[in-house]
Amino acid sequence: MPQGRARRFLHLGRAVGEMAASAAAGGLQQLARGQRPAWPQLLLTPANARRLADRLSTLRGAAMKLGQLMSMDGHGVLPDEFAELLAGLRDQAHAMPATQLAEVLEREYGPQWHQRFKQLSFAPVAAASIGQVHRAQTHDGQVLALKIQYPGVRDSIASDTANLALLARTPGLVPSGLDMAPLLARMQQQLLLETDYAREAAHATAYRQRLGSDPVLWVPAVVPEHCTPHILATEFASGQPVAKWVAKSAGEAKPQAERDHIAHALCALSVREFFEMRLVQTDPNIGNYLFDAGTGRIALLDFGATEEVSAVRVEDLRAVGIAMRSGDKAALARAAIVAGFLGTDDPPAQRQAVVDLMWRSGEPLRHVGPYDFSASTLVLDVFEQGRQQMMSGGGFTRAPPADLLFLQRKFAGVYMLCAKLHARVDIAAVFGMQLGGS
Description:
Layout: H1 5-32, H2 39-43, H3 46-59, H4 61-72, H5 80-87, H6 98-109, E1 117-120, E2 126-127, E3 131-138, E4 143-149, H7 153-167, H8 181-194, H9 197-211, E5 217-218, E6 231-235, E7 240-241, H10 242-246, H11 256-277, E8 279-281, E9 289-292, E10 297-300, E11 306-308, H12 311-326, H13 329-339, H14 348-361, H15 363-366, E12 371-372, H16 378-391, H17 402-421, E13 424-425, H18 427-435
Parallel strand pairs: 5-10
Antiparallel strand pairs: 1-3, 2-3, 3-4, 4-6, 7-9, 8-11, 9-10, 12-13
Helix pairs in contact: 1-3, 1-7, 3-4, 3-5, 4-5, 7-8, 11-17, 11-18, 12-13, 13-14, 14-16
């Protein structure tokens, strides 16, 4: 993993430069043919996606996390091939060389680390922004997943955040006047928390306890005797990542009933963990869910980005949900101010734009019966509406509180997952009891 702010900025800047150069070359070709260049289409090409994904995969850390956020939100907005290539960042980062992995194991477990396990695969099961996962078996036959943190990744977070702040000043990249500092500071804080494996182990255990016995969902138990500050050991979960499971096989799509089963379970979980458990796993990347088609069960992975939710925040967003469902824009505006989506001193045009955007996002709550995610244009509509407002020069000068952005990311991510599954879920019924009514 590249070390040092200057070296990492060189990789990140090179990715941006390569994308811009490719777009410029494509634009010149279009001009030569008498066409008017379309900058977004020129920038978001499969070739540029490969360049960006490769750079971010090499960097890992905060830079790669940015790519993961882009991939989560990409389907329906980014070109399909671009979104698919970025989606590979969820579990296909550049892996540590075997020699480095052995050094980490020796540092964490001692020079006799190889005697601890009957078997340990040096090929990672998954490799993402903070660490990579290996399958191991103990001498008593227990199969484990070892999440091993990349050396130096914690030290890279501050420099990556500073580099992203520098790139955010690029004209046209973010709305003029929008202060990115609080968001980047919160992103840095979150990534630092994700490197705290003791904290993640505690959250995984608490989440498992609050979830309790569930016929569909389960959380692999933490195995403390094999945990260290930089290795998190849990039970090994069988099944396929939902993204791989849903991929077409031999030209045949997966059965609709199974798609709906997964989507309904995860929608109901997002409601339950927020309103009842008050412990939200805010990283809804599709790779964090493993589906076992034989049993119909879903394993829930990765609790590095887990947030406790206050009773006050629950009631704030309950009011927002009720107003979104009823279509009462005046009530929605009042609830948005209380929650922090709006400020009392925001310009009227901005307040109206935010309320309109929130109302549009509440479409599934107002729909009667199963909501068909495959037929919905909601993601594209909301993206375009938000983009026009943000880039118009008359909009957003401050971001909502950071905790709202992480919670919003969870609900938006579950929506994107349902869209990926082409599922049909009665969202109004799922939220019904928490918002009042059925």
